[in-house]
Amino acid sequence: MAVFNKGFAPKQKSGRGGIIIGILVAIIVIAVIFTAISNPIVNISSSSTFSLSTNQSAYFMIAGNPNVYSVFLLSASNSAATLYITGTPVLTKTISSITLAPAQSANVSGDGSQIANMQVQIISTRSGSAQIAISQIPSNLQLKTSGSVVLLYPSLPNKQAGNQVATTTVPTTTIAASTTISGSGTTISTISPTTVVSQAPTATIMAIVNSSPQGSLMHNYDVLYVTDQACTSSLYSSTFYNTNHMPPVPPEDFANVSVQTPLNFKITISRIGTNTYNVTYVPNLPSGRTVPFTAIITANVSAYAVSGYVFGEGLNYTTYHSQYLFQSGIGNSCGAYISQI
After folding, report:
1. Bigger pLDDT: 154 or 175?
2. Which among 126, 134, 116 is positioned nearest to 50, based on CA atoms?
3. Of 150, 265, 275, 148, nearest to 208 (Cα)?
4. Neighbours of 122 (CB within 10 A)
5. Are 258 and 239 in contact (CB under 8 A)?
6. DSSP alpha helices (H): ranges in the chain?
7. For the chain, what percent of residues have pLDDT higher than 70?
8. Among the four residues 5, 39, 179, 252, which has the most C-beta atoms within 10 Å?
9. What would the DSSP string read from start to end of 159-172?
């Protein structure tokens, strides 16, 4: 691939595999309704243990925090369990998805932020059930969430139960050739300024994409790039040394790497067919150098699903996800600058 930043470009080595995730909305709704009736809210002041079966939830609060959170057991085997941690109401809040083996733990934010307010540990797991410990992390510690946490965005406008798209009338409007929308560097493009089209709402398109593992990964990378703009030369040097056991030398020095580490993604939405859109992610570099796309994800609005995706230079989701886990797991503001070696 075109290596525009060693800190970004993942190397094709075997690493931790990607976590393939889907939001099972109907199952979560049923589980939440059931557990809301049958289970009390647990107030966690230090640590509490939950025994859950697959597709079962429990509710809890963290001492000193007014929010109510839900832990949902998506799947469990003898070797690992996948959990969703989210605020309530569950279908309106960001979901933290985490897969852990027995005795493994992760720092998680119940609010979907970069600062963890709880530690989640799998005490034991078997097919269909798991025992989970959740402990409070004091806010003054300002611990970053673990790199193994994947954020999902379940806001589903125009969506009904059963994966059916609600009947809506999309207004016919004139859209400029390049219209800026909310979100850093995000535009709608490739539409003639004088063409009158039926344009699906941008929020709907992005909700579809962000509900997929690929879209969540790109969003997480975008957040990582923005957060890690705080990286300094001294912090980079110490982080590089701790990671590689040697000081950085050109071209791995801060002066070179900092101008090639993306500030964020430039995201464009292009209509490619009836109710079908491509969402393209291109790194926005401080140097201004033009580089290839990182990913193109295709959203089908009628089916309310991602119908395809491709990553740049022939790389794949697993490679990029492994690199994200490595970089976000560094735990300071220079993770995006460090390559997985």
Report:
1. 154
2. 134
3. 275
4. 23
5. no
6. 25-38, 202-210, 213-227, 233-244, 254-258, 317-328
7. 73
8. 5
9. EETTTEEPP--PPE
Candidate from 7-21, 70-84, 210-224 with smallest mean pLDDT: 7-21
Strand partners, 24: none
Cα–Cα dist 288/278, whole Å: 24
For every residue of 182-250, DSSP letters joined together read SSTTEEE-SS-TT-EEE---HHHHHHHHHTSHHHHHHHHHHHHHHHGGG--HHHHHHHHHHHHSS---T
Where is mean pLDDT largest: 36-45, 181-190, 280-289? 280-289
Q: Under a CB-based contact definition with an 8 Å cutoff, are residues 4 and 289 in contact? A: yes
Burial, 141: exposed, middle or buried (Cβ in 10 Å; 0-12, 13-18, 19+)?
A: exposed
What is the CATH number that goes with domain 25-152? Answer: 2.60.98
Helix (H) or strand (E) holding 269: strand 264-273
278: which strand partners? 270, 298
Residue-wise pLDDT for 283-330, tens only, equals: 999 988 888 889 999 999 988 889 999 998 778 888 888 888 888 888
Convert 155-173 to b/e letters by CB count within 10 Å (16 or more is b).
ebebbeeeeebeeeeeeee
Q: Sign of dihedral through CA atoms 57, 61, 65, 68?
A: positive
3-state secondary structure of 334: coil
- CATH 2.60.98 residue ranges of the chain are 25-152
